[in-house]
Amino acid sequence: MKEPQSLYRAGGRIDSTGLAAMMHPMIRSGNLPAISDAGRRLARAVLDALLPPRCLACGAVVEAPGALCGPCWRDVDFLSPPLCAACGHPFAFDPGPGTLCGACMRARPAFDRARAAMRYGERGRQLILGFKHGDRTDGAPAYGRWLARAAGELVAEADLIAPVPLHWMRLIARRYNQAALLAHALGREVGVPVICDLLVRRHRTRPQGHLSPVARQRNVAGAFMVHPWRLDRLRGRRVLLVDDVLTTGATAAACARALRRGGAAAVDVVVLARVVRSDP
């Protein structure tokens, strides 16, 4: 089972929007060695005039691709300590290092630690849906930086990065795996190897969106396995699992169990956004 690199890396869609999303970072990063500095500046100016970069949330013109305008940036609820030492749920006050939230005190999750870049509030939800279903894959580089900041020590201890996989039928329908795009962006940001097909989704599960916590666990139970060709890369390694949203943690827990069965020494999780319980 080979990793569909063209789908993961390019978003799987080559139209005017997707082409602009890819051209902007390519030209701005200077990855055009045959063109002089003056030529690159001219190319950037022409491209920005024809297809100005737009805010990932509201669509207003911004200075650089994959950015937010000032008002939308202020609306994003970024998460920072104090957090639960296990699941990363934010605390209203600092209870001291190593403190667990009530849920993790009752039952530790199957993964070791989880962290999230932002809260899945109104603006966070808008960004996630645009990235996941609206072809706003140009946000991946910025999201990779957000994930790197959120993960902190998790990145420093990780041996490899892996995304939560999509079933192949859903991948064809969606044309890209948003978790894989995030994993690649994070890997480029921090220099940790990314293995996109480390995990395989064995069967097509129902969408989790409207399921209860118990139904979510049942839905993904046994849904994941380690790719047989990747077992040697996994044994004894610390894995940083990447996904777009953490709600109840059922999917992350199912992936963590599969990775541990495959020989992983530890499994941490970093997501772009997480649902915050009203009563931690």
Condensed summary:
It is built from 13 helices and six strands.
The succession of helices and strands, N to C, reads HHHHHEHHHEHHEHEHEHE
Q: Unreliable runs, pLDDT <50, ≥5 residues?
A: 1-32
CATH architecture: 3-Layer(aba) Sandwich
List the domain count as a whole number: 1
List the helices and strands and how they pair.
Blueprint: H1 5-10, H2 16-28, H3 37-50, H4 70-75, H5 102-106, E1 113-119, H6 122-133, H7 140-151, H8 153-157, E2 160-163, H9 168-174, H10 178-190, E3 199-201, H11 213-220, E4 224-226, H12 231-234, E5 238-246, H13 250-261, E6 266-274
Parallel strand pairs: 1-6, 2-5, 5-6
Antiparallel strand pairs: 3-4
Helix pairs in contact: 2-3, 7-10
Describe this structure in words.
By secondary structure, this protein is of the alpha/beta class. It has one domain: Rossmann fold, CATH 3.40.50. The protein has 13 helices and six strands. The strands form two sheets. It has a four-stranded parallel β-sheet with strand order 1-6-5-2. It has a two-stranded antiparallel ribbon with strand order 3-4. Helix 13 (250-261) links the parallel strand 5 and strand 6. The chain is globular and about 55 Å long. Mean pLDDT is 84; it is low at 1-32.
Descriptive keywords:
single chain, 280 residues, alpha/beta, Rossmann fold, 4-stranded parallel sheet, two-stranded antiparallel ribbon, 13 helices, 42% helix, disordered N terminus
